[in-house]
Amino acid sequence: MQPMQSFQQIFGTVPTVEAEAPGRVNLIGEHTDYNGGFVLPMPIPRTCRVQLRLRNDDRVHVWSANQGGSVREYRLGQEEPLADWLDYVQGCTTVLRKLGHPLSGFEVHIASEVPLGSGLSSSAALDIALLRALRSAFGIPISDLDLARLGQRVENEFVGARVGIMDPLVASVGRPGHALFVDTRDLTCRQIPFPERGEIVVLDSGVRHRHSAGDYNTRRSECEEACRRLGISQLRDMTPKDLDRIEALPEPFRRRARHVVTENQRVLGAVAALEAGDLSALGRLFDDSHVSQRDDYQVSVPEIEVLVALAHVESGVWGCRLTGGGFGGSILVLTQAGQGEAIGRRIAEAYGRNTGRQIVPLVVGRSA
Ligand code: GLA
Q: Is the CB of 325 under 6 A from ligand 1?
């Protein structure tokens, strides 16, 4: 991020509306949301903050502290995907206008603490923060749940990333210190307090992904093809007793489907473990989830494997896994409360020696 310039410094006036939304760490349930399955994300104490002031014309002026450079500009009704960060803003105005909400132009200042492309859902944090600000600036009557649905439409219909509902949903309705158990088939949600005894350390590999760039969408198409071959509408329809049918599929559909079916079971196990405060059981599920993502869903990269191996060397670690969409991004490590910072620092130092990349661990727990 370049030195932060204020809204007033950029636009010569003060903002009238402010809103923010957090990034998230997904505890478990990866690539299950667009398959109608279960997820268990938790907000992180890093947010995207937007400040906004309405204009009297149809122009949108945007400045982002994370991107630097000059103020970007477009006209409402003339949104065009550019394959860069402005698409998230253009996508928000496009979906609101499509729903018939009259908008005027505005000036917006964006500053995010969620590292971009790190698997911590920086884009959903931006979508939801901006949609919240627009909801209040224009008095749009829309619930938090519908705001999350709109966030997903921004990504699917404008940005071109065929992501699921998990990230905008937790950015919109998640509570700090609580995991959000979601059944993505009907969007029923349960807030589960994260146990006081535990802590999550998030380590960002520094390897960046863009979900609109291809691999993520390919995985999604592979799941759709697996469904077609199995004669079902979503992989959620399969349970462990259907694994024999899945074993008969050709590759890569066999591995993809097997990951989704087994991952859904692991999420249910993780919810039970969280509610019972059984952190060693939770850690084992994290480890199993990682192996399934690496071998069956094939979304890991060498730097992530270095981080996971370093985490396993630490004695106070219950389990760890790649979190988020993959192809780079972050791992999470489950440790005892109070130990996360030291463990995270040791892993980060060793990772720096191995790869030359400097990373800063982030600790997330009950109180944050
Ligand atoms: C990204 C997407 C989510 C989800 C995860 C993988 O974060 O935005 O919808 O599919 O990948 O679990």
A: yes
